[in-house]
Write a structure and sequence with these properties.
This protein has five helices and five strands. It has helices at about 5-15, 15-35, 70-75, 80, 100-120, and strands spanning about 40, 45-50, 55-60, 65-70, 90-95.
Length: about 120
């Protein structure tokens, strides 16, 4: 089970209520999909690591929330599911009032776990 990080709690506490709620929900979905991951702050945003390797992260700006998948390959492999969403090379932006579907987040996290474990075996 993911142990909540006080640093992540502090990061979320500084956000407006709607963004905090959306990112808390996203955080819970990620934690459920990656129970062996650890939480910390990395590059100024809440991040999950698996066996010491970056997995995914989340954040917020003035205009949107973000789920950082951190893998262009995973993003490309799930392009059909991501169609219509505002995406970057390794991230998905969303509005706090319109959170990402939990099942989509879970699939992306599981894909990142598989990718991370494959890289660790090399």
């Amino acid at each position: 089970m993911v142990t909540p990080s006080a640093d992540v709690d502090a990061f979320l506490a500084r956000l407006p209520d709607d963004q905090r709620a959306a990112l808390q929900e996203l955080r819970a979905v990620i934690a459920a999909a990656a129970p062996d991951a650890t939480e910390s702050i990395s590059y100024g945003v809440p991040a999950f690591k698996l066996r010491g390797r970056p997995l995914v992260s989340l954040g917020a700006t003035k205009n949107h929330c973000a789920f950082y998948v951190q893998s262009p390959a995973v993003m490309e492999a799930h392009a059909a599911e991501l169609a219509g969403l505002p995406v970057g090379k390794g991230s998905i932006r969303f509005q706090a009032a319109e959170p990402l579907p939990a099942e989509l987040v879970s699939r992306l996290v599981r894909a990142r776990i598989a990718e991370t474990e494959k890289l660790a075996r090399k």
